[in-house]
Amino acid sequence: MTTRLLIRGGTIVSFDARTQTPLAGDVLIExxxxxxxxxLIEAADAELIEAEGAVVMPGLVDAHRHLWYETVRGLAMDxxxxxxxxxxxxxxxxxxxxxxxxxxxRAAIVDALSHGITTVFDWCHIINTPEHGEEAIRAHLELPIxxxxxxxxxxxxxxxxxxxxxxGGGQLERMPxxxxxxxxxxxxxxxALQGPEATSLATTRREIAAARAVGLPVSMxxxxxxxxxxxxxxxxxxxxxxxxxxxxxxxxxxxxARELRAVADAGARIAVCPMAEMALGIGVPPxxxxxxxxxxxxxxxxxxxxxxxxxxxxARLALAGERISSPAGAQESRPSAREALAGITLDAARACWLxxxxxxxxxxxxxxxxxxxxxxxxxxxxxxxxxxxxASAHGANVDTxxxxxxxxxxxxxxxxxxxxxxxxxxxxxxxxxxxxxGSEAIR
Length: 443
Description:
Shape: globular
Strand content: 15-25%
Helix content: 25-40%
Radius of gyration: 21 Å
Number of strands: 17
Largest sheet: 9 strands, mixed
């Protein structure tokens, strides 16, 4: 049986490269795929979503987020990287049970969907045991979100490697069968590596080789300002012959222009996390420098311990940061509002190797769609809609969310998801963990 939906009468912001300006019209969805986009579509047998006065745009894509941080939301806003490492990682994260990881991941996915995020790259570095990983993956499979699950290390190993105490060892042998031979259409997998800024190049080489042997892409943190001089992880990977299009680099704040060009030349991906990078002192977000090197950076949330989790905030902050740092009068080098929004849609999908599926509204792509309401400028003919969205849109404007053509949120409320019960279960988990860790873990 064919399932058809018609989104009628909205202002469509497609991010299709062939359509630079918004279009007033309809979107027809058949069996989870965008079948047509036109000023007027006749489809009498389709379920109707009235979009008059609404902005219709691609579902947002968060290309780098540690979902387990939902348990410690806001706790690191006053933290340095050192305090984060000592308190959040060293006292709280090491105490997470598999169930705690499941509850945190589930709550984070519910929050993301409510904010219009239809795809997330979950960089999971709290896999303290294989069961922790299995419980995190279970949360992804239970909920209707498109995801890349980045299978990371245990928090104990992470801390040991940062202290130079870990002897090395692979991660793939810990992975459940579901990661190596995935069967779900919405969830794919990657390896989340510490990388050569936190462990040895030899360990990184072994782990990249193991990932490539089973066809998994790799993501790693690089360019973090936490040492006297930059560690130049990308340059070391380049020198070792390890660069490739299956790599994603996150942050890159201290990465040189040469390193960023090497990323572009290799066809690799980059994700920048403006709010967390600024709040934690990781460094100045390299959005403009990345663009100058030929990259199209994703703009991601990283962790709600020191960020809002609202991708519109990340796009707005990235744009403002680049504008203030642009030379006076250099209009041609200033990023546009449309480019900032692409950083949380199409460019973010590319950073997750999913640009052929999602990130823009195009015929043949999966129907991951968001409707925004409450942006009054949407009704003004000729208005700069990209500018209006970047200036004022936020999660509360997300009225309707579709993933694969399935209605996940409608009229401002999630469908079939008990958000209150999810939050209550997380609150209980959080209270227990903080009690176990002691008050010093939240100072």
